[in-house]
Design goal:
- It is a single chain.
- This protein is about 25% helix and about 25% strand.
- It contains 5 helices and 12 strands.
């Protein structure tokens, strides 16, 4: 069982339980829930609360929105409980490495693009989800780093395997990290420790120190 320290906000959990997130954000949430029993229990509570609320007003006609929400809740709760990623033939391959994918990502395996290299011993593979936000797998090799940066929008990072650190914390499997324009950091891995993450960006990065700032006119290259 993953020892998860960073979680989605209460508002995000409530919107997920209500079926009110966009497809890309729902994928990120579903993947996190496969690692995190704390958030799964909170989702169960929220879904029970929504169901009781609907059942307590039988004489009122349900709006189309409430009907859709109830349908989504019932569909999700009818699925078998997922505890955490397990060994499977559905793996993400990168060179001679294989990473077991959360079940929700296994269902989108045909949407994963080719790997490309970024500066700092980092590789990326785009995941097509539709919408304006950009989803990518990010692989950080041992002893790799991304220059210090902030964000022109929101970045959500879900650690799938391994560990990375920044100036503030150490992040491991299942951690759901949210960064905005108010945050600044320089992610890196230690020697002998790699890391695979899933990221969701709704705006480009902005580098904030050293020669990396020269890349800012080309920041859209990091938002693909």
């Amino acid at each position: 069982m993953a020892n998860v320290h960073f979680h989605p906000s209460d508002d995000t959990l409530a919107r997920y339980a209500a079926g009110d997130l966009d497809p890309a954000s729902s994928i990120m949430m579903s993947a996190h829930l496969e690692y995190c029993i704390e958030c799964r229990l909170r989702i169960d509570e929220l879904e029970d609360s929504y169901s009781q609320e609907l059942e307590s007003t039988p004489t009122k006609p349900m709006t189309s929105g409430l009907t859709e929400m109830l349908s989504q809740i019932l569909c999700r709760t009818a699925e078998p409980e997922v505890l955490e990623p397990v060994a499977s033939s559905d793996v993400l391959k990168l060179g001679d490495k294989e990473f077991h994918l959360p079940r929700v990502l296994q269902r989108h395996k045909d949407k994963i693009g080719d790997w490309s290299r970024l500066p700092g011993k980092i590789q990326r593979a785009h995941v097509s989800t539709g919408g304006q936000s950009k989803m990518n797998f990010i692989y950080m090799a041992p002893d790799s780093s991304l220059p210090e940066h902030t964000h022109q929008g929101q970045e959500i990072t879900l650690v799938l395997s391994g560990r990375f650190i920044d100036e503030h914390h150490s992040y491991g499997p299942g951690d759901f990290i949210i960064q905005t324009s108010e945050n600044k950091h320089s992610p890196k891995t230690r020697a002998g420790q790699d890391c695979l993450c899933l990221t969701l960006l709704d705006g480009p990065l902005r580098f904030t120190s050293g020669v990396a700032t020269l890349l800012n006119p080309f920041s859209q290259l990091f938002f693909r």
